[in-house]
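Sequence and structure are kept together here, with a separate record for every protein. An example record follows, reproduced without changes.
>
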Amino acid sequence: PLPEALKVPATKVEGCASQVWLHPQIEAGLFHFQGDSDAMIVRGLIAVLHRLYDGVPVAEVMKLDARAELGRLGLNEHLSAQRSNGLRAMVERIRDYASAAA
């Protein structure tokens, strides 16, 4: 879970139906992030994104196709439109941060 001190407007992900915070960091050229949400299902989605992106070289983050990976897991067909939009917003936040750091 994300420490309360990091649940601030700068880490909040807009476009999600739930409260979502992502705190990305670059360490030794690798992308890392912590995240949290007030919704259990979104915490699960954050965990999947964490598994996909955390520890990946920054230059590789943009090459990952999160939509395809989530589709491979069968998640796309089980998410509501609102959850899909929120997931897209989280992936965009991750990609934007990595792109700016690359």
Summary: Residues 18 and 39 are 6 Å apart (CA to CA). The first helix runs from residue 40 to 53.
